[in-house]
Write a structure and sequence with these properties.
With 484 residues, the protein is α+β, with helices and mostly antiparallel strands. Helices cover 35% and strands 23% of the residues. The protein has 15 helices and 23 strands. A 7-stranded mixed β-sheet has the order 17-18-16-15-21-22-23, with helices on both faces. A 6-stranded mixed β-sheet has the order 3-2-1-5-14-13, with helices on both faces. Helix 12 links the parallel strand 21 and strand 22. Helix 8 packs across helix 13, helix 9 packs antiparallel against helix 11 and helix 11 packs across helix 12.
């Protein structure tokens, strides 16, 4: 039995998987989101740790098990969220700065103005954007009162430290910081010096599938045998182990990744090159498009506007309308990610009339998820010189049949949902199983099974008309905020 920990942006989940890779039981707990200023997003790392313990114990209790009956633990996590803690007490020294946070956009602009983006891009595969961890670390050290002898890390490193006492991070998460040289597989001294971040504050980089330490938190002594960033975890959980296979995860944000294989990392404008995973002697890379606000836009309808009670309500609301009647929602609530990279874009609703209703806004929010994914697919098609023939989809929003059908219609290709939609944590479990000999990588490929396939039904003329109006709406949202 393998325990998979999925520490996400709005909540923590724990899953128990049997030797056939099937879910035995799971548990979930949300935690508080903090928005101290416009564009700022924070978490309490201590609360995250408490929710992780809570859901793990709940899943084990539900199955009538304890840690002594586990083979291994695999961890997957929200990426780029920056944590600082005291090495001795293990207590956080500042609220975690979340990947959605835009407070360091100005710092990134200054680095670009100094002509440094090419250096960061070449060594890390990333663009200079506040999305990534490095400028968050720098802000904590230079403006947040965090001492230079603190331990820094992303959520994977924080959880590993709390579970085992070891200060380490995996290659996939390290490659999301703007500090990790993805060619040399080490922290880059010049990049760290540029941002004023001491290398000794950073965790030890390790491969994704190996025993990283043991924990007694759940009874017995259980090896933590895998860590992987959530989107790379989903890529592995979708069995995209071979070059050219890809997936799109529908969560708080959307993340489209394609396995780019080993060798020299490919760099393409508007896209991110990242480490998919390191397993044994092999390191695979991935080409990625990151869309910041997709499911989070639905949460905003629920928690901010309060026009829905549950995210699931949007399916029937969207289906109740024959069309969007010209209403578009650009959910740039924290700027726009790939391929636009506009931190100064802001959320915009256009096309409203006196006849517009909450159903129109709900439908527009769902449509925006699909439109952003089309932009991402088009960018990757251009970069790879081919056309996507099938989209493997996972994440919570795949339960929304209206959205999945609309996505297939907008892409003009089938959208396939696997039997286990929670592929982020499944990937972590697979990696832990590979590390401990429960499965081989060939086993992982055979364990993946299709559940639902959505075939496109819309005419190309209708598709192109909707996408053209989406582009008009994007233009109105872009560069809305004036840079400091």
């Amino acid at each position: 039995m393998i325990l998979g920990i999925d520490q996400g942006t709005t909540g923590s989940r724990a899953f128990l998987f049997d030797e056939q890779g099937k879910v035995v039981t799971s548990a979930y707990s949300e935690f508080e989101q903090f928005f101290p200023r416009p564009g700022w997003v924070e978490h309490d790392a201590a609360e995250i740790w408490e929710t992780v313990k809570k859901v793990c114990h709940a899943a084990l209790d539900d199955a009538g098990l304890d840690g002594s009956q586990l083979t291994a633990i695999g961890i997957t996590n929200q990426r780029e969220t920056a944590v600082a803690w005291d090495r001795n007490t293990g207590e956080p020294l500042h609220r975690a700065i979340v990947w959605q946070d835009r407070r360091t956009a100005g710092r990134c602009d200054r680095l670009k103005a100094e002509g440094l983006e090419a250096m960061f891009r070449e060594r890390t595969g990333l663009v200079l954007d506040a999305y990534f961890s490095a400028t968050k670390y720098a802000w904590m050290l230079q403006e947040g009162g965090v001492p230079h002898d603190a331990a820094l890390g992303t959520i994977d490193a924080w959880l590993l430290f709390k579970l085992t006492g070891r200060h380490a991070t995996d290659y996939s998460n390290a490659s999301r910081t703007l500090l990790f040289n993805i060619r040399e597989l080490r922290w880059d001294p010049e990049l760290c010096d540029t941002l004023g971040i001491p290398i000794e504050a950073l965790p030890e980089p390790v491969r994704n599938a190996e025993v990283l330490g043991e924990t007694t938190e759940f009874g017995g002594s259980v090896p933590v045998a895998a860590m992987v960033g959530d989107q790379q975890g989903a890529l592995y959980g979708q069995a995209c182990i071979d070059t050219g296979l890809g997936k799109n995860t529908y969560g708080t944000g959307n993340f489209l990744l394609q396995n780019a294989g080993g060798g020299t990392p490919v760099l393409e404008d508007g896209l991110i090159t990242t480490i998919a995973w390191g397993i044994g002697d092999r390191v695979d890379y991935a080409l990625e498009s990151s869309m910041f606000v997709t499911g989070a836009g639905i949460q905003w309808l629920r928690d901010g506007l309060k026009i829905i009670d549950n995210a699931a309500d949007t399916e029937a609301m969207a289906a109740s309308l024959e069309s969007n009647e010209g209403v578009y929602f650009v959910p740039a609530l924290t700027g726009l990610g790939s391929p636009h990279w506009d931190p100064y874009a802001r959320g915009t609703i256009v096309g409203l009339t006196r006849g517009s209703s909450r159903e129109h806004i709900a439908r527009a929010a769902l449509e925006a998820i699909a439109y952003q994914s089309v932009d991402a697919v088009r960018a990757q098609n251009a970069a790879l010189g081919g056309r996507l023939t099938e989209l493997r989809a996972d994440g919570g929003a795949t339960a929304n049949g209206w959205l999945m059908q609309f996505q297939a219609d907008m892409l003009g290709v089938p959208v396939v949902v696997p039997e286990i939609a929670d592929t982020t944590v499944l990937g972590a479990a697979y990696l832990a199983g590979v590390a401990t000999g429960t499965w081989t990588e060939e086993d992982v490929k055979s364990l993946w099974t299709e559940s639902v396939r959505y075939e496109p039904q819309m005419s190309d003329d209708q598709r192109q008309s909707l996408l053209a109006d989406w582009q008009r709406a994007l233009e109105r949202a872009g560069h809305w905020v004036t840079p400091d």
